[in-house]
Amino acid sequence: MTSEYDIAVIGGGNAALCAAMTAAERGAKVVVLETAPKTYRGGNSRHTRNFRCMHSTPLGPLVEAYGEDEYFEDLLKVTGGKTDERLARIAIRTSEECLPWMEAHGVRFQPSLSGTLSLARTNAFFMGGGKSLVNAYYRTAGKLGVDVLYEANVTHLQLEGDRISRVDYTHEGQHRSFAPRAVIVASGGFQANTDWLTRAWGPPAQNFLIRGTPYNRGVVLADLLDQGVRSVGDPTQCHAVAIDGRAPKFDGGIVTRLDCVPFSIVVNKNAERFHDEGEDVWPKRYAIWGRLIANQLDQIGYVVIDAKSLDLFMPSVFPPVKADTLEELADKMGLPPEKLLETVTAFNAACGDTSTFHPTELDGVTTSGLTPPKSNWARPITEAPFYGYSLRTGVTFTYLGLKVDEKARCSTENGPIRNLWAAGETMAGSILGQGYLAGFGMTIGTVFGRIAGQEAANHAN
Q: What is the pTM of this model?
């Protein structure tokens, strides 16, 4: 087997493109194998909004400072300590140099949004969102001589001893093979593979919605795991959020996320509350709600708010259900009216002084004597009209992936694989054992994509 390419990058999102550009800048001839058609290129990166970035002074659109230790503490809170600290700190520490690198490769930033996405100190927002970032990277990669094959489905990486000897894929109706000097896997998790999700989660997974690309089916991940490449992470752990129950099965994207939970009560099908809606600021807690909803009957929940809270969060892509009374709202959402009225009445009675209510920071406006409590933003639901949303579990990406070292290299039990690296969601389980921190997936992909590209180019050269 021979090949005109030094490096094959499998995947077409942020991590893959960062790897491809970095390798090309070091003189390597690179091909990107993207499973999706061109109009759907970019994987989950198409749906992103921002990049979480450490900085010691104001940087680009970021204000003040956000240090390494605070960043790491934020990560520990959401993961419950389930993280590889060495890799996590590499991602955090390197993120500061990534922002100017991103700008140099075509990405443009804008000031942060307000309300529940007020992250001006911690997260840099992309001008035009993730789609603009992806398009900018493809333009830059093309200028650097990177070739891209769309609808190129990689079916097998042949592992022989301590190296990948062959890449098999289908393209334009033909089965093809080639032998690059190095391979970078950046093809995401297995969340679009419902059968695999169901094996991990059981029957409830049939009710999950997939927020991102339908092309992340875990084909390459499964192929490598079957050949003994070391894995990391729990197949039941994932980045899962509560999204609008009316969202499509696949590719609804970030706009289907609902940011109203902190200003609401959330109930199950029996109109009973089941968790503290005001636990922390939304960017640090939104990712727990997908799992919470997954544990409810029929994997569904319902948001209830009133008129005074409607403008406190990002507008929803679908309008909320609206009613003049709580009983009417319950009827429209298929909830037991008497029980919903009882739940809201008990919640309202437990609310106290609301004079210090502040929608964008922890305000200590809490309930008293209520289980579960609401720790912040607890205001009575009394002002008609009333509004509601249904909530479903929306899976972004799964955390079972390829175990890597600090150089993004993969390995077997016998030692490192000399020419195989991984970046992005396919290795993020090394750092995200559970939970999620807003914008951190893009950080992992950017940092380890660049590392993988550099290391693969060094090997190829």
A: 0.91
